[in-house]
Amino acid sequence: MKQFSNKFQSAQAEQSSPSFEKSTFLTLFLIAAVILLMLPFFTTFNEFLTKIIEKSALYQPIQDHIVPFFAKMIGSLLIPFGVKFTAYLDGMMINGVPMRMTWNCLGWQSLVLILITFLTGLTGNYTKFSKLECIMIGILGTFLINIFRITFTSLLAAYWGRLFAIVFHDYFATFITLIWLFVFWWFSYAFVLRSST
């Protein structure tokens, strides 16, 4: 009887963790569905939000210090592709094509999305250290995905023109973030998060 009780408790512990995993992926699917349905609205709203914030001085420190740093970082990544690159305060010149870069291009939206998924993804019975590892990997990965997104957009502008870069930036870049979130949570549940029991 005691062995049956122990087996039942261990089975319950095994089942509790996957339910949190399912809720995380369900959250991701819901986010993806909402984004796909409202993508034109999000793009328009994003531009509207940018114009409102740019009328204030809140964005100025990011625009003055972080955007030029990002532009130089992207430029160094474009060198192996033979792209002629010049960074300046409001963006960059890529093979003679001007590409404006603002605080809004740095990927704050993807940071908001991953923070939302942390609320459901980390509610299981996991060790504190593995949760911290998961958060660090998630934030670092999101940063690197945004670097990739901006670099790829810049390559499109350099070799295929500004129109392709704008279409990718406004519409398809969101898919990269969603794919990253699915891969991140699969990796976290498979290799990072460890049960505390």
UniProtKB/TrEMBL annotation:
Bilayer disposition of the protein: Multi-pass membrane protein
Domain of life assignment: Bacteria
Transmembrane segments: 25-45, 66-89, 101-122, 134-159, 171-192
One Gene Ontology MF term: peptidase activity
Subcellular location(s) of the protein: Cell membrane
Protein keywords: Cell membrane, Hydrolase, Membrane, Protease, Transmembrane, Transmembrane helix
Protein name, UniProt field: Exosortase/archaeosortase family protein
Species whose genome carries this gene: Candidatus Nealsonbacteria bacterium CG23_combo_of_CG06-09_8_20_14_all_40_13
